[in-house]
Design goal:
heterodimer; A: alpha+beta; Heat Shock Protein 90; five-stranded antiparallel beta sheet; 6 helices; 23% strand; globular; B: alpha/beta; Transcription Regulator spoIIAA; six-stranded mixed beta sheet; 3 helices; 33% strand
């Protein structure tokens, strides 16, 4: 049994604003967005930082939602829930997300993020324009615009990892750092 | 043509498309999970507007936030207006952004660079 007080201390020392593990349903994600919006409102950071944070939070949460909304049929994990966490240090906010992903998709996703990370902000602006203008949009999402937007608005590289669960399934984690000093 | 009125919500913007005045307003937050479904009536209305366009069309976009799936829909609706610009209607886009919101200004400039439409960037004071 986990000691509740130890867990509480851990979350306090890690400056966790919110932490969630479970199903990424629309209602749950909307509630988390509301909670974080009110926490941001009360925080001492500039409006510019608040807006950047809110925008990136929306993209992160909707990414998780779209994975849950239409789970990949090749993933056979029984409880395919997601993780979502936000922390605040002096200089940075950090957003952490994690969800299951089919092994078929990791190569493509890895290439996309590495490409986005390799671009400077000017090239990223051009790349965004290209995808916005020519990319396909599904009923679900912005056709890859979300990751570009996170990178542009945070002006930081996206940290990511794939953890192998079994032959068909990986756990994909994403970490985004947003400066508190905009 | 009937005016299209959609009330705003915490996730979707207020919409008012008026053929008689030629004024189209999109205002508030646009962060729906399914943007394509939300913007469908707007795109449909604009398709009809193409053959009933007012001599002048003013598009007032004043968004506090919009997600990337909305950004694609907004481009689609502006492209509809681009198609009638000059030939059927003089279209003017007024892109509003809150002071210091450089990301929102930049988003407007991105659209301006893609489209052959006159844009005016309007700074609004924070509430």
């Amino acid at each position: 049994m986990v000691n509740t007080y130890q867990l509480y201390e851990k979350m306090t020392n890690g400056n966790i604003l919110l932490s969630y593990k479970g199903d990424a349903s629309k209602d749950v994600l909307s509630s988390m967005l509301d909670i974080l919006e009110s926490k941001l409102k009360e925080s001492d950071v500039s409006n510019k930082t608040k807006k950047k944070m809110y925008n990136i939070l929306v993209e992160c949460l909707q990414n998780l939602y779209h994975h849950t909304d239409e789970p990949d049929p090749t993933i056979e994990i029984e409880n395919s829930s997601a993780i979502f966490m936000v922390s605040r240090q002096t200089e940075n906010f950090k957003i952490f997300t994690g969800n299951y992903i089919s092994s078929n998709d990791i190569e493509g996703l890895k290439e996309r993020i590495e490409h986005i990370n390799s671009l400077d902000l000017e090239s990223l602006k051009a790349y965004h324009k290209e995808i916005l203008n020519n990319g396909q949009i599904s009923s679900k999402g912005g056709g890859g615009l979300g990751l570009i937007d996170m990178r542009r608005k945070s002006q930081n590289k996206l940290n990511f990892e794939f953890h192998k669960v079994d032959e068909k399934t990986y756990f994909f984690t994403l970490e985004i750092t947003i400066s508190t000093n905009y | 043509m009937e005016t299209l009125n959609i009330e705003g919500s915490t996730k979707t913007p207020e919409i008012e498309l008026n053929q008689e005045s030629g004024v189209l307003v999109i205002k508030g937050r646009s962060i729906p999970e399914n943007s394509v479904a939300f913007y469908k009536p707007v795109i449909d209305w604009l398709s009809e507007y193409e053959s009933n366009a007012n001599e002048n069309t003013t598009v007032n976009i004043q968004l506090e936030y919009f997600n990337t799936s909305s950004s694609k829909c907004i481009l689609d609706l502006l492209k509809k207006l681009e198609a009638i610009h000059d030939s059927k209607s003089a279209v003017q886009v007024n892109w509003h952004y809150e002071e210091d919101d450089e990301d929102m200004l930049e988003a407007g400039e991105d659209y301006e660079a893609i489209l052959k439409l006159p844009f005016k960037m309007i700074e609004v004071k924070e509430e």
